Amino acid sequence: MLFITVPRTWYILAGLLIIILNICFGSSMVCLNAFLPVLVRNYAYDSAGLFNSKIFGLSSVQSESPELDAENMESATLMKPIHSNLPDSYAAQLNLSSHISSQGIAIGLVSGIILQLICIPLTISTGSGTSSLQYAVFVSGLWWFIFTIPSMRWLKSRPGPPLPTFYKDKLLLLQYIQYGWQSLFDTIKETARLKDVIIFLVSWALLSDAHITISSSAILFAKTDLHIKPAGLIVIGMLSTLSGIVGAFTWSRYISPKFHLSPDSAIRLIVALSCLIPAYGLLGFIPLCRQIGFGGLINPIEIYFLALVYGFLNGALQGYTRAMFGSLIPAGRESGFFALYAITDKGSAMFGPVMVGIIIDKTHEIRWAFLLLLVMLGLSLLVMTFVNTQRGRQAARQ
């Protein structure tokens, strides 16, 4: 919200605020994602530590935990690991995790659409200048602040080891920063013992980078090759977001149950279907498509339909990947591992755009970037086939 106070010439202050913004946003997403497996475990077990058979249609089985007193009952329930003697319960909890995650993605996309519908008229009505963008950023910050209040008010603290107590008040912040980095390195060391987490993160690095690059490359392609004006680019973004909402709800509620797809199978199917997007763009090299003026993103109308397909797949993918990763990590270490998840996501995001820039510079043809995207998606699909969720969960419990 402080952007509204920054004069035009104070670009260094604006840059500093952007750095702070990204740090806070990244940290909050790590914490939000870390709650996912905890919520699933809490929902799967009742207050007495019994497996909730009413939810999953399974026999109620006594918890492996010893008798709990009232004070420790809730924390033990939230930290309860998945039963080793209930293979069906594992699949049920993974499906539940995918459902909750997909709902979260869909609600977030709906929120984004509503905010855009507020900010776009505000920007236009105030002249579409620098101050207009400042107003839009202020509204975005206010939106974020308002909807943070419910989680601050009602979301309970995640059980786990307490933070260390520091006594040197002057160095308090530095000590917490040091503790955070030390925790991250400890998590990396633990990851070395979790084979399926490593395989997943390698696949996720390729997959997330490919999807981010598809989005940026499509906008660049639409602007430079198809000569679509800014209003059309806004429509493409809106269509992709709306389709993402539909995809997030549809895959978890209808498609996966109808075809009996486990979350890991759904991810592989979504990635395979995603390969069709860059493959379709490569059809533009075929002379016949150029002659008829359609196929392979020759006609501008095609990219609008492709935006719908991309959003439909990406919305579901975001929900499933969080759920699958959450099932592979040790209970009580969610924050550290989802920090690694975020680092893998954002850290790899520069590879695709850099490679696209090199391709355009060398070939003067952005369409060749679709070949790079097809290779990245194909490799991520290949690597993902080696992830064994049952084996990974067992390793996490050990």
UniProtKB/TrEMBL annotation:
<dbReference type="GO" id="GO:0032974">
    <property type="term" value="P:amino acid transmembrane export from vacuole"/>
</dbReference>
<feature type="transmembrane region" description="Helical">
    <location>
        <begin position="12"/>
        <end position="36"/>
    </location>
</feature>
<dbReference type="InterPro" id="IPR024671">
    <property type="entry name" value="Atg22-like"/>
</dbReference>
<dbReference type="GO" id="GO:0005774">
    <property type="term" value="C:vacuolar membrane"/>
</dbReference>
<feature type="transmembrane region" description="Helical">
    <location>
        <begin position="366"/>
        <end position="387"/>
    </location>
</feature>
<dbReference type="InterPro" id="IPR036259">
    <property type="entry name" value="MFS_trans_sf"/>
</dbReference>
<protein>
    <recommendedName>
        <fullName>Autophagy-related protein</fullName>
    </recommendedName>
</protein>
<feature type="transmembrane region" description="Helical">
    <location>
        <begin position="132"/>
        <end position="149"/>
    </location>
</feature>
<keyword id="KW-0472">Membrane</keyword>
<feature type="transmembrane region" description="Helical">
    <location>
        <begin position="266"/>
        <end position="286"/>
    </location>
</feature>
<dbReference type="GO" id="GO:0006914">
    <property type="term" value="P:autophagy"/>
</dbReference>
<keyword id="KW-0029">Amino-acid transport</keyword>
<feature type="transmembrane region" description="Helical">
    <location>
        <begin position="197"/>
        <end position="221"/>
    </location>
</feature>
<keyword id="KW-0926">Vacuole</keyword>
<keyword id="KW-0813">Transport</keyword>
<dbReference type="InterPro" id="IPR050495">
    <property type="entry name" value="ATG22/LtaA_families"/>
</dbReference>
<comment type="similarity">
    <text>Belongs to the ATG22 family.</text>
</comment>
<feature type="transmembrane region" description="Helical">
    <location>
        <begin position="233"/>
        <end position="254"/>
    </location>
</feature>
<feature type="transmembrane region" description="Helical">
    <location>
        <begin position="338"/>
        <end position="360"/>
    </location>
</feature>
<feature type="transmembrane region" description="Helical">
    <location>
        <begin position="105"/>
        <end position="126"/>
    </location>
</feature>
<keyword id="KW-0812">Transmembrane</keyword>
<comment type="function">
    <text>Vacuolar effluxer which mediate the efflux of amino acids resulting from autophagic degradation. The release of autophagic amino acids allows the maintenance of protein synthesis and viability during nitrogen starvation.</text>
</comment>
<keyword id="KW-1133">Transmembrane helix</keyword>
<feature type="transmembrane region" description="Helical">
    <location>
        <begin position="292"/>
        <end position="317"/>
    </location>
</feature>
<dbReference type="Pfam" id="PF11700">
    <property type="entry name" value="ATG22"/>
</dbReference>
<keyword id="KW-0072">Autophagy</keyword>
